[in-house]
Amino acid sequence: MKPDMPFIPNSLINLNGNLLCAVDVETTGRLAGYHEIIQIGIQPLSSDIKPMKDVSPFYMNIAPKYPERVERAATRVHGLDIDDLVANAPDSWRAADLFDEWFQRLDLPFKKNLVPLAQNWAKGMPYSTCFDCTMRHLTKWWYMGEELDAESGEHHIDMALCNLLMLKHYMASFREGDDRPGQELTRFSESLEDFNTPFNEEDYLDRNPAIRERLENERRQGIDRF
Known about the structure:
The chain has helices at about 70-80, 80-90, 90-105, 125-140, 155-175, 185, 200-205, 210-220, and strands at about 20-25, 35-45, 60, 115. The protein is of the alpha+beta class and about 230 residues long.
């Protein structure tokens, strides 16, 4: 039986017939394109931002393809048993098929999709997470010549701007996330001349091993973007 689609009031008219949903994921770490989604939940929402009646949410554990990349900090957050996921959960391809079957049962109008309601970011995160994401996107665009982020399909400049806007929000709403290293570690003086110092590629790649790995693989293939 096809569920009744919710009435869309003027306040949500910009959804244009798409279906609002709450999405929550757990991952093996914080680095997009390197770490993986290992649990996902999708709850369709009505026009008053409440779970839709008679529509089952999509919920799935997913076996990681690269369990060796799991960050300890991530497991402390979600508490999932990685070994159990590897042994018993479906892989990402099977999970994608099951998601497609669930999506088709929603029977949305032609070319209409799910619109995620994003709120988790507003709860706050370490400032270094936003900074590192910003630098990764700028590095991929500037040094690697890559335009679009492989995971989101958005332009790297847009992704960098998004992280900077989040960081600006946290400066007012989440001061406890301020984990900047401090001048005694960065060795920056108060002179603006220090900011004209060339970007230290090695220091940055040490902090972002996934980018270093990608560059080394490309160089072994004869590709040198620097």
